[in-house]
Design brief:
The structure holds two protein chains of two kinds.
Chain A (H helix, E strand, L loop, with lengths): L2 H31 L6 H18 L5 H18 L7 H12 L15 H14 L6 H39 L8 H13 L1 H6 L2 E10 L3 E7 L6 E3 L2 H10 L2 E3 L3 E3 L2 E3 L2 E8 L2 E9 L6 H73 L5 H37 L8 E4 H14 L4 E6 L3 H5 L1 E4 L1 H16 L2 E10 L5 E8 L2 H15 L4 H7 L2 H12 L3 E7 L2 E7 L2 E2 L6
Parallel strand pairs in A: 10-12
Antiparallel strand pairs in A: 1-2, 1-8, 3-5, 4-7, 5-6, 7-8, 9-11, 11-16, 12-13, 13-15, 14-15
Chain B lengths: L1 E5 L7 H12 L4 E5 L16 E5 L10 H10 L6 E6 L4 H7 L7 E3 L4 H10 L5
Parallel strand pairs in B: 1-2, 1-3, 3-4, 4-5
Helix pairs in contact in B: 1-4
Classes of the chains: A alpha+beta, B alpha/beta.
Chain lengths: ~575, ~130
């Protein structure tokens, strides 16, 4: 159930209670002003019994909801019995539930002309009017019911619109539904058709969302039904017109062999992209003005939300593509390494075999020695011939690793964003207690850096993993402003005396200017971190100060616009 | 005694086989080398050979790679022959197991005559 419906249910329950309170207050008013048939104590008892029965029937449905109504009128009957019914104030009391009918909190559908309610009112009136029937009273019931119908119709339309708008909220609530955005349009059409009244006046059949591209024309993004083939008469002219207009109607289009002549194109812009909603109708909507109202007040606001959903989904798919592109690069690197190993294995065979034969020579039978010596000579030559290709291949592999550019794409982000990334990653780690010291102010947060978002997250994670190896479990992250814009991680080292030599080596390696020297000794993770920091021109330094291992990253501030 | 060897870079390992043939088979082994599976022709004729040695990483020009060749031999009910695998991948045994193939002896690359001998020992080295 959508939030709107849930809220409405709660409000109706509150109104139910308030309405009964109004009934009781009104009853007390009538008792005090008019002459009463029973003694005051009977009325007080009636009020108590009424409240008790109402409490037990509160928020009940079906038959029990009807009993709640009967309870109301039994109470009113007692209050009004013996009083002049021709008096407006008294007869109005009897009509109050009819006025409140529109707020009925039961689950049954609200009927403005409720036969059941009208019957109960008439029966009650008949009984307390000395079993006489008053036709004029029937007129009052009719008039109020008519007014209720108008109100009910208003709610009916509001409910219809809310039902459509809640599709998007429900769509994302149900396990994100990423990749299934077409279901939104399908659901819009389905809910529209479920509303018999609106769908009779607006015979909507299907909706298609296109993206309008300058030179490539219409690209289908979403559709309420699967369409394999779309043929647009005068496609080029249509696209040209769509670039300049806000809407078009009744263009000839063939959808999977079916010709559509009653239709509407609605054009929208979002994030510098042009989107076109194609709305197909079963037949021409009978009233133009109704269609215009429907389009401007219902479809356009709804479609503007759907466009945002489609755009978000598109952005997510782009991120996925980037991820797989980077993954592919990694896979290609692995494949290159595997091929190199295979090559080297073959080339090393003569070298290995040469030494094996030399080793076996002394213990060889005399009759085979000469032949073996010939083979040894042959293999010696083969081994020598292999060395050059082996060396060349190894150099080639080493060179590829050294110049490997690990950054595929960068963007300018604010330090505010970078701050969030660093803090979020630190907070995800359960092994270390992070404390933060923030010298950055509003001006600093607005500054920009050029960064690859995926890799910076990886770098921070990798740095934390390495800090954890030596940590007592606490780390202070400082966002510095005083000596340049930088971030430092100050980590208290456990067993410092035992670890000192190791940590000195790690810091020495990490601080190497020559990344190739570092690559001989350090872990893969730290090597990648080093490469990234160098390529991003982020100055970095690791120091061991007393019992603390401190890593400082000095950021290079960019001039540029960030949209993050 | 004939050995069928499926290997597209035999030149690099020929001397290893020559040395093995000399020291342990008195040069009585005859090996026929097939750079690709299709070079052999009808695989049923593999039964004419005493041993079959297969490089798992046959050239991409070969219709069947090493594993496919083994599976085809299994289909032809030749999998109980004396088969040996030439490879640089140590984890090959897991793949053989996954394909429900017998545990053939491995001649790991880079090879030497001693490694060839170790594989033949699996079947009881003999003339």
């Amino acid at each position: 159930m959508s939030i709107i419906k849930v809220t409405d249910s709660v409000i109706k329950l509150a109104i139910s209670i308030l309405f009964r309170a109004i009934l009781i207050i009104y009853a007390v008013f009538l008792i005090s002003v008019y002459q009463n048939h029973f003694s005051i104590y009977w009325y007080l008892l009636a009020i108590c019994i009424y409240i008790a029965i109402y409490s037990s029937l509160f928020n009940k449905h079906k038959l029990l909801a009807f009993l709640r109504l009967v309870n109301d009128y039994a109470f009113m009957g007692i209050i009004l019995y013996g009083k002049p019914l021709e008096n407006l104030q008294i007869s109005l009391f009897l009509l109050l539930p009819l006025l409140n009918n529109i707020n009925h909190s039961g689950k049954r559908k609200i009927r403005p002309f409720s036969v059941r309610l009208s019957a109960v009112i008439l029966i009650t009136h008949f009984i307390i009017n000395d079993f006489k029937f008053n036709w004029l009273f029937l007129t009052s019931i009719f008039a109020i019911s008519l007014i209720n119908s108008l109100i009910s119709f208003r709610f009916y339309l509001i409910n219809y619109v809310n039902n459509l708008y809640s599709i998007i909220e429900e769509f994302y609530r149900d396990n994100l539904n990423i990749g299934k955005t077409h279901r939104i349009l399908k659901e819009v059409v389905k809910r529209h058709e479920q509303n018999k009244f609106v769908s009779r006046w607006i015979p909507l059949r299907s909706i298609i969302l296109f993206q309008l591209r300058d030179e490539k024309g219409l690209k289908i993004l979403l559709s309420s039904e699967f369409i394999a083939n779309i043929i647009i008469k005068d496609n080029a002219t249509l696209c040209e017109t769509l670039l300049t207009e806000n809407s078009l109607s009744n263009q000839t289009i063939v959808l999977d062999g079916r010709e559509s002549k009653q239709n509407l194109f609605l054009i929208m812009e979002y994030k510098a992209n042009k989107y076109v909603f194609f709305v197909d109708f079963y037949r021409r909507p009978p009233i133009d003005i109704a269609l215009n109202i429907y389009v401007t007040k219902v479809l356009e606001p709804l479609f503007s939300k759907i466009v945002q959903v489609a755009y978000t989904e598109y952005q997510l798919s782009l991120e996925n593509k980037k991820y797989f592109k980077e993954l592919k690069n990694r896979m290609e690197s692995i494949e290159t390494a595997v091929n190199a190993i295979h090559y080297l294995n073959n080339k090393l065979s003569p070298v290995l075999n040469y030494f094996e034969m030399l080793r076996l020579l002394p213990e060889t039978e005399p009759s085979k020695v000469d032949q073996l010596k010939e083979l040894i000579e042959t293999e010696k030559k083969n081994a020598i011939d292999s060395l050059a290709p082996i060396t060349a291949k190894m150099n080639q592999m080493a060179e590829k690793t050294m110049i490997h550019n690990i950054i595929s794409e960068t963007k300018i982000i604010s330090l505010r964003k970078l701050f969030s990334i660093v803090r979020n990653i630190c907070e995800e780690d359960n092994a270390i207690q992070f404390n933060y010291s923030v010298e950055w102010n509003e001006n600093t947060f607005d500054k920009k850096v050029l960064i690859n978002l995926n890799l910076i997250s990886y770098v921070i994670e990798e740095l934390i993993i390495n800090l954890k190896k030596y940590s007592t479990g606490s780390c202070v992250v400082t966002f510095h402003n005083k000596t340049g814009t930088s971030i430092s991680f100050k980590n208290q080292v456990k067993n410092i005396d035992k670890q000192r030599a190791v940590i000195n080596k790690v810091t020495q390696d990490f601080n190497q200017e020559n990344v190739n020297e570092m690559m001989k000794r350090s872990s893969t993770g730290l090597r990648m971190v080093k490469q990234y920091l160098i390529q991003q021109d982020i100055k970095h330094k690791m120091t061991l100060l007393n019992e603390n291992l401190i890593l400082t990253l000095t950021l290079k501030i960019e001039d540029g616009n960030s949209n993050i | 005694m004939e050995i069928a060897i499926f290997e597209n870079e035999f030149r690099a390992i020929k001397t290893s086989f020559d040395g093995f043939n000399l020291l342990y088979f008195d040069n009585k082994l005859e090996y026929k080398v097939f750079p690709s599976s299709q070079d052999f022709g009808d695989l049923k004729n593999l039964s004419d050979y005493a041993y079959v040695i297969i490089d798992i990483d046959l050239s991409i020009k070969s219709t069947l790679d090493g594993f496919q060749l083994l599976e085809e031999m299994k289909r032809l009910e030749l999998d109980s022959m004396k088969i040996m695998i030439l490879t640089g991948h140590i984890a090959i045994k897991d793949r053989l197991k996954a394909l429900n193939l017998p545990d053939y002896p491995i001649i790991p690359k880079p090879i030497s005559l001693t490694k060839i001998k170790d594989a033949f020992d699996f079947y009881g080295l003999s003339l």
